[in-house]
Amino acid sequence: MSASKGSIAATAGGSDRLHGLDAVRGYALMLGILYHATMSFLPGQPIWVVEDPHKSLLLSGVFYVSHMFRMTTFFLIAGFFGHMVVEKRGVKAWVKDRAKRIALPLVVGWPILFGLIVAASIYGAYATAGHLPTAAEHVAAAARAPKPPPLAFPLTHLWFLYLLLWLGAATLALRAAVNRLDAQGRLRKAVDAGLAAVIESPFAAVVVAVPAALAFLFGGPWRGWFGVMTPDSSLLPNIEALVAYFTAFGLGWLINRHAGLMNIFARRWPLNLALALGLTAACLSLAGVEPRIDIFPLGAKTAAYAAAYAVASWAWTFAAIGLALKFLSGESPTRRYIADSSYWLYLIHMPIVMALQAAVVKLDLPAEVKILIVLGVAFPLMFASYQLMVRRTFIGAILNGRRAPKPAKTAPLTAHPEPAE
Question: What is the pTM of this model?
Answer without folding.
Answer: 0.90
